[in-house]
Design brief:
Blueprint lengths: L5 H23 L7 H36 L15 H6 L7 H6 L1
Helix pairs in contact: 1-2
C-alpha cells in the first residue's frame, strides 16, 4: 500500500470529474430524434444528464478548493471547527472540508 499523497489523489479525482463532465457534455450535445415520443424520452434523459453534470462540476470545484487549501497549508483542517480531519477520512474523501463530527452536524 502506498502512502496517501493529497497532491496525487486530488489530481486524480479532478481528472475523474473532468472526464465525467466531458462525457456528459458530449452526450447532451447529440441531436434528438424526430419522433415526438422518442424525443420526449430523450429530453427526460437530458434532465438526468444535466443533474449528473452539475454533480461533476460541483466535485471539480470542491477539488479546486481542496488544492487551494493544500497550497495554503490549510489542507486537512476542518473549515468549521479548525480541528484536524482524520487521515482516514481524507483518504476516503480527499476534498473533505469538514471533520466527521462537523459533517454530521451539517
Amino acid at each position: 500500500m502506498t502512502a496517501f499523497d493529497p497532491h496525487v489523489e486530488l489530481g486524480q479525482l479532478f481528472d475523474e470529474y473532468s472526464a465525467r463532465a466531458q462525457a456528459i457534455r458530449h452526450d447532451l450535445a447529440r441531436s434528438h430524434s424526430a419522433d415526438f415520443a422518442e424525443q420526449a424520452q430523450q429530453r427526460q434523459n437530458d434532465e438526468v444528464l444535466e443533474a449528473l453534470l452539475a454533480e461533476a462540476e460541483t466535485g471539480m470545484r470542491q477539488v479546486e478548493l481542496a488544492k487551494r487549501r493544500l497550497a495554503e497549508g490549510r489542507y486537512g483542517v476542518c473549515q468549521c471547527c479548525a480541528e484536524a480531519i482524520n487521515p482516514a477520512r481524507l483518504e476516503a474523501m480527499p476534498a473533505a472540508e469538514h471533520c466527521l463530527n462537523c459533517a454530521d452536524q451539517a
